[in-house]
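Quick sanity check, Methylmalonyl-CoA mutase:
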Amino acid sequence: MNTTAREPLENASAQKDKPWLFRTYSGHSSAEASNELYKTNLGKGQTGLSVAFDLPTQTGYDSDHVLARGEVGKVGVPICHLGDMRTLFNEIPLEKMNTSMTINATSAWLLALYIAVAEEQGADRMALQGTVQNDIIKEYLSRGTYIFPPSPSMKLITDVVSFTYKEMPKWNPTNVCSYHLQEAGATPTQELSFALATAIAVLDAVRDSGQISPADFPAATGRISFFVNAGIRFITEMCKMRAFVDLWDEILLERYGVENEKFRRFRYGVQVNSLGLTEQQPENNVYRILLEMLAVVLSKKARARAVQLPAWNEALGLPRPWDQQWSLRLQQIVAFETDLLEYGDIFEGSVEIDRKVEELKQAAREELSRIEKMGGAVAAVESGYLKEALVQSNTNRVQSVISGDIPVVGVNRFTESTPSPLTQAGDGGIMTVDPAVEAEQIERLRAWRAARNQDEVTAALEALKTAATNGENIMPASIAAAKAGVTTGEWSEALRSIYGEYRAPTGVSGSVSNVSGGAIDAVRGKVSEAATSLGRPIKILVGKPGLDGHSNGAEQIAVAARDSGMEVVYEGIRLTPEQIVNAALEESVHLVGLSILSGSHNSLASEVVEKLKAAGLSDIPVVVGGIIPPEDAEKLKAAGVAAVYTPKDFDMMGIMSDMVDIVLRHDAAA
């Protein structure tokens, strides 16, 4: 008798639920390389695409712009024009594909390019399925890939929502994103309330624009989707998702009068937490990813529509295709080997679950009311309230890890470890992007510009500016510009000339460290003694060179340095090496600290060191923090960087003490 055979379903006629969409978030190097990766992943059973764009594409710069130096193809695929988009989806039938594009400030443009390519393939716009993230508000708070001020940014979101409702009814025109809020430190209550406040701001803007009639508005609300995060406290995270379902239904019914239950469904995709992945004992991340995924698939009432999982090694660097396959197989095992999809909601009637859900809902309602009294999410961004709240929450989280109040296995508990064979291979367990990729992309870009009809490009850009100036929907002019050969940088620059640019509040000034006791007292004493020796207080510059907008680390260093007694210069994200060097000169700083998480650390940090020397400031030491492989750390030190910090270096007071020592050593040697 075969005792290992699977028992048949008790009710053979029972209808199993369909699994969620299986995605992996991917894109790197070039459109051609990413296309090969997509086709490989689809061949392995992936059922939807999730496109990662590089930082120049996300922030509206062509690959040859000065701010794009070192960033091309690092955290995603560079898309400069229709030719790149055509290559990206070569031999992938877009009419049959469900494509998610993580793009925000330039979402209207990338959607225009996608439509243009789909139509070249012979696809009908009405049949296209997928999502653009198109959530600018959280960009001001977390990832930092915004371009324009809040008001025109909301106009662009509204244009995409209105256009797709009429022209692409199967498309999700905005994916209100709480994922990056959690990455920036948000508590479950903040994740719920800040995301829902953003969704309210979007719906209010769409309603008030008049582009969608009152009769059609309820159906338009049904196309709004969400993109969320799930952390390791998976009971709380699952309850958070059930709270999202209830609160969204409540908002659509009570605030907007949406009677049709179908339109009030909370539709969401998820990537589980990357912030919690550890550089130490990285193999433990596999278990973390599984537990976090369970939070968004176990409860049928609040099950995700699409899931993408990070790879175990993302705290080390860029995952390889094999690493992504491992994450994909995890999804497939849960969906197809377990009996999860054979049952209804297994949490219905649970006293504990109901209690936690109600607790989260009540706290979120209170925070939503507070934001509403400020004038809504946009006003709360402009005042700095939301950013300061996130920086404070993240400060509390970081300090709780340092103190051990939040246990992290392999980091502050059970740190004894045998070297992992997963990282011992010749590639160090990660994939690296060939530096030649940038030069090759720039060469293709220049060839594209040379081959196109410049008169058509000029006319398309003028039409785009006219549409923006007149308040017309931006999508028709953007699609025409895409087909004329306009580039990403040209599209963005045309709108910059109309809308202007924006620098969001940093949130640092209002945040207070929660460190207390001997650790910070010792560092404060050390800083005070150093000030006496130097003849003035230690002054450091915290800089974010390039286009990396993940500012959590920089913000935490700035807060810790300030609370240790140092003077801190922190001007936010997206600075050129020249701007950082000029600030170091003008502010007479003792040390420059660079935060770079995009993989461009070698080129950008080395350039800052070189430019400091050229400016006669070689006595100012440079330290660098980021996701930096050991071999790159050695290269940076050989190039003149004084110290390198990675996610394993989470003790803020230890870093502060190190920086004091570095300043004193360089002062003595000067």
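Posting the structure with no commentary besides this: The first strand starts at residue 21 and ends at 23.
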